[in-house]
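Last lecture ended with a question: if I hand you only a sequence, what can you say about the shape of the protein? Today we answer it with a concrete record. The protein is ATP-dependent 6-phosphofructokinase. Below, first the input exactly as provided, then the predicted structure, then a couple of comments.
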Amino acid sequence: MNIGILTSGGDCPGLNAVIRGVVRKGIRAYGASFTGVRDGWRGLLEDDVHPLHVTDVRGLSGRGGTILGTSRTHPYSGGGPARMREVMERRGIDALVAIGGEGTLAGAARLAGEGINIVGVPKTIDNDLDGTDYTFGFDTAAAIATEAIDRLRTTAESHHRCMVVEVMGRHVGWIALHSGMAGGAHAILIPEFPQSYEQICAWVTSAADRGRAPIVVVAEGFTVAGEDDTPVADRGLDKHGRARLGGIGEMLAPVIEERTGIETRATTLGHLQRGGSPTAYDRVLSTRLGMAAADAALTGEYGKMVSLRGTRIELVELSAATEGLKKVPLERWEEAQILLG
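The predicted structure:
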């Protein structure tokens, strides 16, 4: 049996570890063969594929990025399912393992409904996919953001400044919540629970009054309560019409400075959170998800996504896993609020 593997959407620490897990498990346990699909759905639509051997995945568990390349090509462009079937038949590909986030797996669910043999692996630093407790890449992104907060704190303390740190996450606040709690932030601002300028400045002033250099961690999709509820997207839209979020930190900093009288600077971490080596946790999770995906593909469990439930890897329906965003729940926000100010 021959299994195609593709990585689609944004890059993410741990992608290579998944590929390694799929290939090693599939060859060692099942004697399967594998085909690498270059640049996500584009490679399948344009017949840009190549064989994947054990030697191709050596030493990949700690390597960032993806050896297969990635893109945001829509699976229903360039011929869609009919073209995919044609390429799969020509190349002898019996099933696909699609590694991606919300958009990739929504496309995979739709393709599965049209009869293409496919298994999904959840990937996103945003941790916003339903159907799994955590996605690989999230732990690395949160760790990078936490280290940045630690570093910014020392310069903030030296100059008695307030620092606003903008992190990724699109329309959910998991990275901001975890890095903010881990880094001891005095204000954590997430899309799920908009806050007013008055509340933000009250947290900042409370920290400054205790002799601290205030740290504000804000998710890129955050909006200020009572203001425009459209997230800041200074860079406009990408070629697929999706907003390029970012800029809320630069917008908040001068307002905080004006209202509190505390010199305030903003830092946007951006793609730093997506690059580099995955953490040990993400390496293990990625490898386990990859091995489970190999099992599912080679035993005919199509239309499913491998998922982390507690400490167990389970299978869930792709359609159910992509129905909505996994947002920060109220109890997690209430838990964090005790630490603010």
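Comments.
1. The chain has a mean pLDDT of 95.
2. The two ends are 58 Å apart (CA to CA).
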